[in-house]
Structures are given as C-alpha cells and as structure tokens.
Amino acid sequence: MSEQNLDVAVIGGGAAGTAAAIAAKTNGADSVLIVERNEELGGILPQCIHTGFGLHYLKENLTGPEYIDRFVKRIPELGIEHKLGTMVLDLTSRKEILTINRNEGVQRLRASSVVLAMGCRERSRGALSIPGTRPAGVFTAGTAQRLMDIEGYVPGKKIVILGSGDIGLIMARRFAMEGAKVKGVIEVMPYPGGLDRNLQILKDFDIPLYLRHAATFVHGKNRVEGVTMCKLDENGQPTGEEEIIDCDTLILSVGLIPENELSNRAGINLDPRTGGPIVDENMETSVEGIFACGNVVHVHDLVDHVTIAGEKAGASAAKNAGGELQRPVNKIQLIPGKNVRYVVPQIISGARPVEIYARMREPAYDAKITIGEHISIRRRVVKPAETTIIDLNEDRLKKLEGSSQVIVDMTSQEAVTC
C-alpha cells in the first residue's frame, strides 16, 4: 500500500471542494490534494445547464458548467493535485484517509488538515414509504436531470413532480421545453419549497401547484400509469379527497441529505437538525484539524454560499496546517429556538465578526429575529426556501459577552399565505 503525506486533503471536488482547495493553496498550504469519486471535477454542476449561478459571488448570471469552470481551471494553474475516479473508504480522527482507484489501488493519505466537501444525496422513494407498486418511471429529480442534460434521454411524456424544491421546479421547465406534459407539482406543505425565481417557472408554463397535497399511491405494473393525490388538512392528515393523475413518470424532489458516512467514521459530532457536522466559525468540526463546508454541513439554496463556505474552510485548513489557526477560546453555542430550524455555525467565539446562516421553519412577513436577550434584527420577509444570513458585527457581539449559550428565535406579525 502506497502512502502520501499532505498539508491539506479535500474530500469532494464540487463547488465547495474546489473553492476550499484554491483557498488552502492561496493561504500558504504547500501540498493540497482533492479526492473525487467522479471522473471529472465539478460535482453536480456540470448537469445544471440552467442559469442563475454566480449572481452573488461573481456578479454574473452563469450556467452551472460556466460557474464551476471558473474554479476547475484554477486547480492545475495553482499546482493543486487531484485524484479522479477515487473512492474514500475510510477516514479516521487522526486524519488518515484510505482511498482506492483503478490505477493506484489502495492508498493511505496522511494530512495535517482535512476538508469534508462530499455534498449531499437525494431523498428517494424508499425514504418516503409511498405505497403502491414498484414500476419503472420513478426518478429523483437529479437523476432525471442527468438523463436529460448529460445522457440526452427524455425519461417520460406525462410527468408528475412530487415536492416543490428547486431541482423539481427546474426539471418541470426542462420537461415542458422538451415537449412533455407536466401534470402538476404536489407539495405537502402549505407553502412552496423553492426560490421565487424558480416558482415563476410554474406560471410561465401554466403548471398546476397543489399545496397541502400528498402522493399516496403509485399505480402501474411495468411502467407508472398514475399517481393518487390526496388533499391534507391543517394538521397534515389526509382529508379523504383523492384524485388519480394519469402519468407515466413520477419525479421526486423531496429534499437532500448531507453525505456524512465518513464524518461518522471519524467520530465527528453531527447536528440532528442539519444532518451535518457541528462546526465553529472556522468551519472546524468537533475533531481538531477536520473541517467541513458546503452541502455536507447543511443544504444550501445558492451555490454562491457554498463557495464562500468552501473558501472559509480551506483558508482555516491551511492555517491549521501551518500552526496559525486561532480557535475559539470562549465558545458561545447558538441554539435554534422558536420558528428556527437550524443555525450554522453552531459555535462562535464572540471575538471577531461572523456571518451566521439560519433556516426558518415558516414563511413570515415583518419578522423579528432575536439572538439572546439583547440582539433584535428585523427582516421584511423570511422564507424556509431561502437562507437567512445574519451579520454578527462587533457591536452585536458585545451584547453576547459572558454568554455560553444563546437562543435564536423568530417571531412575526403576519404569516405568509400561499
């Protein structure tokens, strides 16, 4: 078994991983390696041929391939090594990584710092336990996107989309543009789950959106023949009002799950609210020297935020490798409270300004976000589909002095109705 010693090893070569590797290299790390299981860098972005990427970070409106190309090109320019088609088999708390690929076989990597950037995977039909038969024609939205945008296949003609997440809405447009009939988008919540710009797709293509509805049965023997849709009451329980929608394809856009099998193997503490590692303001996990960023920490709604998190983790990893990382001494734990699903980072020092990312449980107008007893921030509107970014500047941090735990709450004068 061959071995290799590194300053920084990055697991995952998507938007988070490439940004982390570039930041690590430009912040003084000599040897930086990206380990990627696909045959190319870029993660999911090469199949995201729609626009909307880079509006915040690059101030440009780019497609997914255009956006990630800006970062992939810099990898060889900076002398960053990358291994493609390489699977990580194990990660230990001692920052030892066991990899395997067809050319080098099994290899052991030892790094001063490790950055986790494995992204997330889609929730499947099995996770939803939808009753019915098991015919062909049930796809996750990401799988359907790859079939259409990379492989060149249209997987169906009459489409029902379960879930109003961004990928599902984007695929509704993609199917409509290819001549398929999108029968509707079914959403169990009383409000849609996608960004406003993607919800506009439904209006542009006259696609029905069924809020407070659930798919309760899949019909068909060899191929999907229909889906039973049931109306839900205010408590999320079936009302008995059912309708069978004739279709040959069911697309699932029902959420993403951070990929944290390796995090578990390394003994990293996970946050049950996000499904990802608990991190501090340096993006360092509970295991010293292991950092995390991107969708492996929490599911982001914009790739621009993924890139920013990757840069922060990469810079911190380089400083750790050089023995220069300033870790929080007086740790303040941020705890999600009323109407707040989660807060990232979960731990801050209170010594320097930091941006925190919060996900709200319900949409609301005239929202008041409180952090502890003395910080109050007003927002005109908040939505679960959009990350709420809160800037904890020096003035606000002074109000947290002496605290070890603070609760982040959200209250509002008026709920958003859809």
Mind explaining what this structure looks like?
By secondary structure, the chain is an alpha/beta fold. The chain has three domains: 2-121 and 256-321, FAD/NAD(P)-binding domain; 124-252, FAD/NAD(P)-binding domain (3-Layer(bba) Sandwich), CATH 3.50.50; 332-415, Sandwich (Immunoglobulin-like). The protein contains ten helices and 27 strands. The chain has helices spanning 15-26, 64-72, 74-77, 125-128, 141-151, 166-177, 196-204, 261-265, 303-321, 394-398; strands spanning 2-11, 32-35, 51-53, 62-63, 81-83, 87-91, 96-101, 105-116, 120-122, 138-140, 158-162, 181-187, 209-211, 213-219, 226-232, 238-246, 249-252, 256-258, 290-292, 332-336, 340-344, 347-348, 354-360, 364-371, 375-382, 388-392, 405-415. The strands form seven sheets. Strands 1, 2, 5, 6, 7, 8 and 19 form a seven-stranded mixed sheet that branches. Strands 10-17-11-12-13 form a five-stranded parallel sheet. It has a five-stranded mixed sheet with strand order 22-20-27-24-25, with no helix packed on it. Helix 1 (15-26) runs parallel beside helix 9 (303-321) and helix 6 packs parallel to helix 7. It is globular, with a radius of gyration of 22 Å. The model has no long low-confidence stretch (mean pLDDT 94).
